[in-house]
Amino acid sequence: MCTLTYLPLSENSYILTSNRDEKIARESAIFPFKTDYVSQVLVYPKDPLGEGSWLVASSNGMVACLLNGGIEAHVSKPPYVMSRGKVLIHLFKFETISEFLAEFNFKGIEPFTIVAIKELAIHEIKWTGSAILHSIKDKSKAHIWSSVTLYSEEIRLARESFFYQYLNGLDEQNASNQLLGFHQFNGSEIFPNGIKLNPKNGTQTISISQIITNNKGINFDYFDLHQSGFQREFLEIQNHAVPS
What are the E-state strand segments in 131-202? Predict the structure, then answer.
């Protein structure tokens, strides 16, 4: 939930790769599983503590990822009415992003950023603790997000520059593996801990997830670095238009 990259492959296909940076002592996540949810099938890893997730894919074609923090680093002030991971699950109750923004009650929830990819657009939703900011990103271009709670603006911009430089040498036939390599191994020559966060104040990258999707289905690969485990799930996309 702390570093996310998006790479378009074609008009209907993309790769989304996510690093989850979390406290080492936190209970390990439940590996991705499928579950029926409001006339669709969801697949996601589950956080036993907050009972939510940071990355969810749906048989309706939508994929959404959550990162901690909104616009800037904040001081956590629990208790909160709901974990941010549960907010991500609730998003899939709504037919459209517009309905979610208009009807969901964000009050009393810790700041977060959600990146939701639907058929027509990449939606970036930031909750600051007092306001919702919604923008649309160009789906035809690559993007990177880094959590504002772990990385300063200077580091976030440096990571962005490094990511775009890395893409210049990307082999399209091996893009998924190269992106996994970027998330797990690259950056140490620029960033002290690389893109993968090594132990820092008790926090480190504990899993890497990668989603590859097209108009037929979604592949969800999950690498648990803490337990040295791997799981792959596949979702067939329902044969209907996806509202934005």
Answer: 132-137, 143-146
For the chain, the first-to-last Cα distance in angstroms comes to: 23
The 10 Å Cβ neighbour count of residue 7 is 23
Specify the fold of 3-236: Penicillin V Acylase; Chain A (3.60.60)
Check: CB of residue 75 under 8 Å from CB of residue 148.
no
For the chain (length 244 residues), average pLDDT per consecutive 10? 91 94 86 96 94 96 96 87 96 96 97 92 96 96 94 90 91 93 72 68 89 95 92 87 41
Q: Is beta strand 112-117 parallel, antiparallel or unpaired with respect to 63-68?
A: antiparallel
Spans of all domains in the chain: 3-236
Cα gap 181→43, rounded to integer Å: 24
Q: What is the rounded CA–CA span in Å between residue 220 and residue 44? A: 8
Residue 242 has a pLDDT of 41
Beta bridge partner(s), residue 14: 8, 213
So what's the pLDDT on residue 241?
42
Q: How far apart are CA 158 and CA 160, in angstroms?
A: 5
Helix, strand, coil percentages in the chain from 3-state DSSP, rounded to 5 = 20, 40, 45
The identity of residue 81, as a single letter, is V
DSSP letters for 216-237: SEEEEEEEETTTTEEEEEEEEP
Query: What is the side-by-side order of every strand in the sheet holding 122-127?
Result: 30-36, 41-46, 55-58, 63-68, 112-117, 122-127, 132-137
Please give the structure tokens belonging to residue 55: 């990355």
Distance, CA of 213 to CA of 233 (rounded, Å) = 12
